[in-house]
Every structure is written in structure tokens, then in C-alpha cells.
Design brief:
Domain Aminoglycoside phosphotransferase: 65-232
GO molecular function: transferase activity
Order of helices and strands: EHEEEHEEHHHEEEEHHHHH
Number of domains: 2
CATH topology of the largest domain: Aminoglycoside 3'-phosphotransferase, Chain: A, domain 2
Bound molecules: adenosine-5'-diphosphate, magnesium ion
Organism: Devosia ginsengisoli
Largest sheet: 6 strands, antiparallel
Strand content: 5-15%
InterPro entries: Aminoglycoside_PTrfase (IPR002575), Kinase-like_dom_sf (IPR011009)
Mean pLDDT: 93
Strand order of the largest sheet: 1-2-3-4-6-5
Keywords: Transferase
Length: 341
């Protein structure tokens, strides 16, 4: 894996993605999609954070809406793998959405994925929604554990971590200097307390990118979208839990009591659906949160090193998350406290 592949352009840059907005698609795109589907209907383009992405809602006159994704050739391999995983999981009743039979197809420079359109909403930082999320995350992880490609995913994960460690040591030694605050980045890279490899912990295949844009609540169920990180995310499950708590709870809810009740609902639901006795063992959780932020900063550094323009806002997001963990240490301890009903 080359370091340039460590980074995938996110659909949103912020921390709290709204649901998409919709605008009428251009006639040429409408024609292309209708021809591909062999059906006619109204087509609108999704805007995420105000930006057009290659995603469309197709509404035929008398049937169910579909979501159409146009994927560039550069993402072909990861998209094909992600769609295979989605199909495999959906066939085992996991809470994901799979492409309709016959998709993806390739037409010239684009891959076309068509899937059922989900009328969903974002996950809220409530006990109910967080319990739904914990349950779905556990269901997906449990299925992924027996996926036939697991060994290959383990190798890809090891390669990716090795690439990130090279970036980290370049930052630590000053050979690489990136972002709006290179000194701070170097200090974090040198911090021996931070460890995103977690060598001694047991690893399982994870969703790998449980940000709030990658889940929809549909008919009382949390549906996990976007499986493009699974095949390099065979990692300790605590990393998935910590990311979810950070993004769905701590960045959204300032009040500690509220954060603790929502966070605990997530952890408990995950734990009971996984059937595991302990979630954290003796792990220092604030360190895990901070290490996750460092990992993301290393991904940005790698992207910048390979010529991607990375706005300050994106760097600052992870500097902020690194600090958030220390500030919310009390809530984090209570969220993951074991042996309390
Ligand atoms: N099947 C679907 N039905 C309805 N909306 C969807 C569907 N798939 C994705 N979306 C919307 O598009 C957003 C981005 O989808 P995602 O699969 O995560 O794409 P990306 O790879 O660009 O991140 C989601 O947050 C969701 O709002
Ligand atoms: Mg996504």
C-alpha cells in the first residue's frame, strides 16, 4: 500500500454531518442514469455539506426510490471490495444496505452502484439511538469475524499501520513538517503515551469509520453504510467504541450526565450483543482517544506529503479531539465503567 492511499477524501469535513440536501440533476446525468437503469424517473443529486457528490436519488413513477452512486475509476478497487462485503453481510441479515442484484456495473470511466434508497435520519445522542447503534455495531462485527477474507484484511491492516508508523516517526524526528501547527504535531508524534497500534490487544474486523455520516436510523434500526474501511480495519474493538463515543456523544453533548447515559447505553448494547464479559480491561481510555486523534493526524500528514491540499480546519478538528479526551476524562471513565448496571 502506498502512503497516498491512506487518505480517502471525506464527504464532509466537519464533525456533525447533516442529512443531504437535494437538487435536480443535470439532464445529461439524468439521461445516463435512466439509460443505465433501463427505467425512467425523477433524479435529484445529493448535496453533502452543500457540495455535490456523485450520489443521486432515483424516484420512478410508481415504485420505490433508489440511491445511485457514480464512482470514479480511482476508487474502483475499494468500492468493489466494500460492495462485496455489504452483499455478504446483508445475506446474513446484518444491518447494512447492499447494492441491488447486477450492481455495481462499469460504464466507461465510472462505476455505478444502485441500492435501495433509505428514508432515514441521523443518530441522536439519546440512550435509545445509542443503544440501537451499539447493537448494530456488534451485529456487524460478529458477522465480519467469520468473513473468508479476514486474513487478507489482517495483512492490509498491518501494512497500513506500518505506513502510518513511518509517517509518525518522520513527524517525531522533524523530517516531515506538516499542517498549521507542526510543533504541536511533532510533540504528539513523540509522545510515548500515545499508541494507535495496541500491539497486545486482540483484533477483529471492524467497520473502521463509524463517523455520524456513515449511519442512518431507519425503521428503528441503525443501518451502517460505507464499508470502505473494513478491509484494513482488523483492530482492537475498543478503537471502534472509542470513535463512536467521541463522534456521536462527546462532540455533541457538553453535559456530562447526558453524555454518560447515552454513552453507557451504547457500550452496554454493544457488550450484550457481542456477548463479551469485559470491554476495556485495564486500558487507559483517555490515551486511546488521544491516540486515535494522532492516527488521524498521521493520515492527514501522509496525504499532505503526497500533495493533497489539507485545509487548516481539518487539522484543527483532530487537535481539538485530542484535547477533548483529556477534558472529558471523567465522563469517559463513567461511560466505560464496568460492573455497574
Ligand atoms: N442507500 C441510501 N439511502 C439514502 N441515503 C443514503 C444511502 N446511502 C448513502 N446515503 C446518504 O449519503 C451519505 C454518504 O453516503 P456514504 O455511503 O457514506 O458515501 P461516502 O463514501 O461518500 O462517504 C450518507 O450519510 C447518507 O446520508
Ligand atoms: Mg461515508
Amino acid at each position: 500500500m502506498s502512503s497516498s492511499e491512506l487518505f480517502r477524501e471525506p464527504s464532509w469535513r466537519g464533525l456533525r454531518p447533516a442529512l443531504p440536501e437535494y437538487v435536480a440533476a443535470e439532464p445529461a446525468v439524468t439521461d445516463f442514469i435512466c439509460r443505465t437503469l433501463g427505467e425512467y424517473g425523477a433524479i435529484s443529486q445529493l448535496l453533502l455539506g452543500g457540495c455535490a457528490v456523485g450520489m443521486f436519488r432515483f424516484q420512478p413513477a410508481g415504485g420505490d426510490a433508489k440511491l445511485v452512486k457514480l464512482v470514479p475509476e480511482s476508487r474502483r478497487s475499494s468500492m468493489m471490495q466494500a460492495e462485496d462485503i455489504a452483499t455478504w453481510l446483508a445475506a446474513r441479515d446484518a444491518p447494512v444496505v447492499a447494492a441491488l442484484p447486477g450492481y455495481p456495473v462499469w460504464d466507461g470511466d465510472y462505476g455505478i452502484v444502485v441500492m435501495p434508497y433509505l428514508h432515514g435520519r441521523r443518530v441522536e445522542a439519546s440512550e435509545q439511538d445509542m443503544a440501537l447503534l451499539g447493537r448494530s455495531v456488534a451485529q456487524v462485527q460478529k458477522k465480519l469475524a467469520s468473513h473468508p477474507d479476514r486474513l487478507r484484511w489482517e495483512r492490509a491492516t498491518a501494512e497500513r499501520l506500518a505506513d502510518l508508523m513511518v509517517v509518525r516517526s518522520s513527524l517525531a524526528t522533524g523530517r516531515l513538517s506538516c499542517g498549521p501547527n507542526p510543533e504541536r504535531l511533532a510533540t504528539l508524534a513523540r509522545d510515548p503515551m500515545l499508541d494507535f497500534v495496541l500491539q497486545d490487544m486482540e483484533r477483529v474486523p471492524l467497520h473502521g469509520d463509524l463517523n455520524p455520516g456513515n449511519v442512518l436510523i431507519v425503521d428503528g434500526k441503525a443501518i451502517l453504510l460505507d464499508l470502505e474501511d473494513v478491509f484494513h480495519s482488523v483492530l482492537p474493538p475498543i478503537l471502534e467504541l472509542v470513535l463512536a463515543i467521541e463522534r456521536y456523544v462527546l462532540v455533541v453533548v457538553e453535559n456530562d450526565a447526558h453524555a454518560v447515559s447515552a454513552g453507557r447505553a451504547f457500550v452496554k448494547a454493544w457488550q450484550s450483543n457481542m456477548g463479551v464479559a469485559t470491554v476495556t480491561g485495564s486500558t487507559d481510555l483517555v490515551r486511546v482517544f488521544r491516540s486515535l486523534a494522532l492516527r488521524s493526524l498521521c493520515v492527514l500528514a501522509s496525504a499532505e506529503q503526497h500533495g493533497a491540499a489539507m485545509p487548516d480546519e481539518e487539522w484543527n478538528k483532530f487537535f481539538l479531539l485530542e484535547q477533548l479526551a483529556g477534558r472529558r476524562a471523567h465522563a469517559i471513565a463513567l461511560i466505560f465503567e464496568e460492573g455497574v448496571a
